[in-house]
């Protein structure tokens, strides 16, 4: 999660090289001067490492806010799919078939499934992707970033969200050894002592697990069978108690306790654990934690952390791009806040501006063009109506609603 700024992706980089580099770097990278980005793609940064991921996040976030994305934005995403059903981070020439060198991965594929399922009308694409995800499920029931990599909480969590969105019960999706993703998650949970019950992420070299907030948020979300769009929790659940994580449910309880303590100890937000990021707030992982806490029935801390994001996220989102705006929209949704007034910012409008105009806006523009081509401007009609004293409140209201979409 956190726009793939996780150690799982860093591990993928160590194994496979720059083709699997995390999107955190992509968000700040400019495309080469000769590169022309597709018109349906959200964001203007180099999509090499995160094109499918940020597109999926953007489409899903807009849909959650009641906005219907442009057809060409959806077409761009479906056009990235390989014949196998898997998605790579980005394919510059989607007209060329995927081959053994195409770096398909579970995270891009699962995020695409969540978006396409929510948008509807993409049953064949979703079915192919789900089949691919099932074909690369590890023996322990989980998923790694790329096929063949060890299971990690981030990848397993986002795949669970995709399976749930596609109408499957994660506990029924089993590997050849008979394990479901809920069997894999407890093994990725750490001790209640010095590790605080967090989910761990493996070091790229040693493979040793270390407590990780991003992995914990993903693990908690997945253990509750939730995707990225989480409804606000209406009732505060009992404080979780840490115990041996022999089930996914207990692992989620342990991880929830870890997040609650970590957030409470640092002014309701997380701090970055990336090298060279000392004393730097981690807004993406904080947003992810809001989703996890809402899924775990902890609305009080979810609302506090979302409130902190509302006050401190503007510059980060502007710099980071579409996926960051999407994460904030998800956090607003999960905490019961208004994404159109998030600390004074209209996140939906800001995200919409990162890509092709949504369908409603396109329709409004076409209607205006049609009236202009007919020789009579709609604004001339409205002006006459005002002079004549005709009530035009309904016209103004209709146009205002279109502008807000």
UniProtKB/TrEMBL annotation:
Query: Which SUPFAM superfamilies does this one have?
Result: Terpenoid cyclases/Protein prenyltransferases
Region Disordered, residue ranges: 352-372
Keyword annotations for this protein, in alphabetical order, are: Membrane, Metal-binding, Signal, Transmembrane, Transmembrane helix
**Top-rank taxon, per record:** Bacteria
The reply on keyword Transmembrane helix is yes
What InterPro entries would the database entry show? Answer: SQ_cyclase_C, Terpenoid_cyclase/PrenylTrfase
Squalene cyclase C-terminal domain ranges (all copies):
109-154
Transmembrane regions listed in the UniProt entry: 378-396
Where is composition skewed (Basic and acidic residues) in this entry?
363-372
Please name the CDD domains in this protein's record. Answer: ISOPREN_C2_like
Residues in the signal sequence: 1-26
Q: Which Gene3D superfamilies does this one have? A: 1.50.10.20
User: This chain belongs to which protein, by name?
Assistant: Prenyltransferase/squalene oxidase repeat-containing protein
């Amino acid at each position: 999660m956190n726009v793939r700024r996780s150690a799982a992706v860093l591990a993928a980089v160590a194994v496979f090289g720059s083709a699997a580099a995390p999107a955190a770097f992509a968000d700040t990278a400019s495309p080469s001067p000769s590169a022309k980005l597709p018109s349906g793609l959200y964001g203007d940064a180099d999509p090499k490492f995160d094109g499918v991921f940020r597109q999926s996040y953007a489409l899903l976030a807009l849909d959650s806010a009641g906005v219907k994305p442009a057809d060409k934005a959806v077409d761009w995403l479906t056009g990235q799919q390989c014949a196998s059903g898997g998605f790579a981070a980005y394919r510059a020439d989607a007209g060329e078939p995927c081959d053994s060198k195409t770096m398909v991965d579970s995270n891009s594929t699962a995020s695409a499934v969540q978006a396409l399922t929510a948008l509807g009308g993409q049953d064949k694409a979703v079915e192919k992707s789900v089949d691919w995800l099932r074909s690369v499920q590890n023996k322990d029931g989980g998923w790694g970033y790329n096929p063949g990599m060890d299971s990690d909480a981030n990848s397993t969590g986002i795949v669970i969200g995709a399976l749930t969105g596609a109408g499957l019960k994660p506990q029924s999706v089993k590997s050849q050894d008979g394990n479901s993703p809920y069997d894999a998650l407890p093994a990725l949970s750490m001790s209640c002592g010095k590790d605080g019950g967090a989910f761990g992420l493996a070091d790229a070299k040693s493979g040793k697990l270390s407590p990780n907030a991003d992995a914990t948020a993903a693990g908690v979300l997945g253990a509750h069978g939730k995707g990225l769009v989480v409804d606000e929790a209406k009732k505060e659940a009992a404080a979780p108690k840490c115990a041996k994580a022999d089930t996914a449910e207990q692992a989620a309880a342990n991880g929830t306790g870890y997040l609650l303590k970590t957030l409470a100890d640092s002014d309701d937000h997380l701090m970055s654990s990336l090298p060279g990021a000392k004393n730097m707030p981690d807004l993406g992982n904080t947003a992810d934690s809001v989703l996890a806490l809402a899924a775990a029935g902890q609305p009080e801390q979810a609302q506090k952390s979302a409130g902190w994001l509302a006050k401190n996220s503007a510059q980060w989102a502007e710099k980071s791009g579409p996926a960051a705006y999407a994460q904030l929209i998800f956090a607003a949704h999960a905490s019961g806040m208004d994404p159109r007034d998030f600390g004074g910012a209209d996140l939906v409008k800001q995200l919409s501006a990162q890509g092709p105009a949504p369908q409603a806006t396109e329709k409004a523009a076409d209607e205006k063009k049609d009236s202009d081509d007919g020789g009579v401007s709609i604004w001339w009609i409205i002006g006459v109506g005002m002079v004549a004293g005709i009530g035009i409140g309904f016209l103004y209201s209709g146009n205002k609603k279109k502008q807000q979409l």
